[in-house]
Amino acid sequence: MNSFRKQHLAALAAAIAVAGAGMGIFWDKGPQAHAAAAAVLPQVKYKTALQSQVFDAQDYTGRLEAVDLVDVRPKVPGTLLKVHFKDGQRVQQNDLLFSIDTAPFTARLQQVQAGLVGAQARLRHADMEQQRARRLVESQSISQREFEALDNAASEALAALKGAQAAVAQAQLDLSYTQVRAPIAGRISRAEITAGNVVGSGGDSAPLTRIVSENKLYASFNVDEQSYLRLIAPSLRSGAQPAVKVGLAVDADFPHTASLEALDNRMDTRSGTVRVRARVDRVSPEMLPGLQARVRLQGAVPYQAVVVDDAVVGTDQDRKYVLVVNAQNKVERHFVELGVLQGSQRVLRSGIEPGARVIVDGAYRAAPGAAVSAVEAGAPAASAPMTSGARS
Question: 307: which residues sit within 8 A by CB, 6+ positions away?
Fold first, then answer.
């Protein structure tokens, strides 16, 4: 064998040895390669769905209404002389609001008082005639018929006196009505009719102003049939009152506690709703009758339901869903029926069971059906192994 062939064989043997060493290194690191492949699975964090006792609730839109509201109208006609209040001020019951010209009513009172004096005089005369006739009829000096005529005249005089007294009382009442006073305490509106105008009287007359009570308000709203059967009816059967909370349009929550005041006696078949009214006993200064009210009606009968973070609920067109990690560490999408929102927690009426691992972070990294590395949210993260550098 010549020297060239020896060199060629030596080079080939060296190449085979190097290749064998490389293959040994590859097979020795096989488990590490598999670990590296497993480490690249997307990591998600989950929370276990818990079952809790909850109270069902529903939100509605309604209106604030005054507990007491009065349109102030004059009870007698006449010329309005003076307005005794400022627009929007608070008034107490029986405060003087308007003055109507008293001259016609004073004259009328004087007239009927004069009639009363005449009626009293006629009654005295009739009484004396009656007494005289009684003595005469006993002595048979006059006939029974004459006595009955005088007795009847005395009765008519008494009736006339009572009519005159009633006329005086009515005239005094009309005179008092020239001072229009507040029938209730509350906040008064502006004067709709100013001094110098002639006003009418009675229910058909134009109102002079309006007064609404301030300390309490009603929140009126309509409850649909399903909500009535789900929230109100079970509470009525149990003898408990549903809880009601009220907020204004600008409130993020429902800061005002109310109590169910009235439930209508029938369901409106046209709208499919029943009218409900709640009373707010502690009213804040910004709450005015007529403002839009946000009302939360909470049933009084609790039930068991699954509760999750509201942020994990997704939307697919008109359906709601949550992502869950199954026993094989694969992502599943479960469509759910939403219940009431309690703070940051959402009640799920159906869709998942208690104990399900609901993904709360990292769902964007894995589609449904994909395998993931699931870590419980809040658990301490596993520390990476320390690698020491090899020295040659």
Answer: 49, 50, 51, 52, 54, 342, 345, 346, 347, 348
Torsional class of 351: left (φ above 0), alpha (ψ -120 to 50), beta (otherwise): left
CA distance 273 to 224: 4
Report d(CA 82, CA 98) in Å as an integer. Answer: 6
pLDDT digits (tens, 9 = 90+) for 51-80: 888 888 888 999 999 999 999 999 999 999
**DSSP output for 38-63:** HHTSPEEEEEE-EEEEEEEEEEEEEE
3-state SS string for 261-294: EEECCCCECCCCEEEEEEEECCCCCCCCCCCEEE
Judge contact between 66 and 218, C-beta under 8 A. yes
DSSP 229: I
What does pTM read for this prediction? Answer: 0.64
Q: Is the Cβ–Cβ distance between 351 and 334 less than 8 Å?
A: yes
